[in-house]
């Protein structure tokens, strides 16, 4: 019998892009090595970005940015699969991120 004690279930609401009638969010490159870019169109302001392990534990947090594009340094993050959550004025979107 396989040991599944280190397995986690999670739901991803976006892979690399998210669009609605008000905005589009792009994250690139994905997979990422050193620098990740989060770019958005539309007028919504981003308030914070959270990087979490698939277990839900927050690893890194970037706050209070409101430009159309932001560069995130992920060089020190261990390779693996993560959840990148982008929070705006009235919503949050989650993306699957692969760190090489």
CATH architecture: Sandwich
Succession of helices and strands: EEEEEEEE
Kindly give the count of domains.
1
Separation of the first and last Cα atoms: 30 Å
Coarse shape = globular
CATH topology group: Immunoglobulin-like
Helix content: under 10%
The biggest beta sheet, please? 4 strands, antiparallel
CATH superfamily: Macroglobulin (MG2) domain
Q: Tell me the Rg in angstroms.
A: 14 Å
Strand content: over 45%
Oligomer: single chain
Structure description:
There is one protein chain. The strands form two sheets. This protein has a four-stranded antiparallel sheet with strand order 1-2-3-6, with no helix packed on it. The protein has a four-stranded antiparallel sheet with strand order 5-4-7-8, with no helix packed on it. The protein is built from no helices and eight strands. The radius of gyration is 14 Å and the shape is globular. The model is unreliable at 8-15 (pLDDT under 50). Helices cover 0% and strands 51% of the residues. The protein starts with 16 loop residues before the first strand and ends with a strand. By secondary structure, it is mostly beta strands. The protein has strands at residues 17-19, 24-28, 35-41, 46-53, 58-63, 69-73, 80-88, 92-99.
Descriptive key words:
100 residues, mainly beta, Immunoglobulin-like, four-stranded antiparallel β-sheet
Secondary structure elements and pairings:
Layout: E1 17-19, E2 24-28, E3 35-41, E4 46-53, E5 58-63, E6 69-73, E7 80-88, E8 92-99
Antiparallel strand pairs: 1-2, 2-3, 3-6, 4-5, 4-7, 7-8
């Amino acid at each position: 019998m396989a040991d599944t004690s280190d397995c986690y279930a999670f739901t991803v609401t976006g892979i690399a892009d998210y669009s609605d009638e008000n905005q589009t969010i792009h994250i690139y490159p994905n997979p990422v090595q050193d620098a990740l870019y989060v770019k958005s169109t539309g007028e919504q302001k981003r308030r914070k970005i959270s990087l979490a392990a698939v277990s839900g534990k927050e690893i890194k947090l970037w706050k209070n940015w409101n430009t159309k594009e932001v560069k995130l340094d992920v060089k020190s993050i261990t390779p693996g699969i993560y959840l990148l959550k982008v929070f705006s004025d009235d919503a949050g979107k989650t993306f699957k991120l692969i760190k090489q």
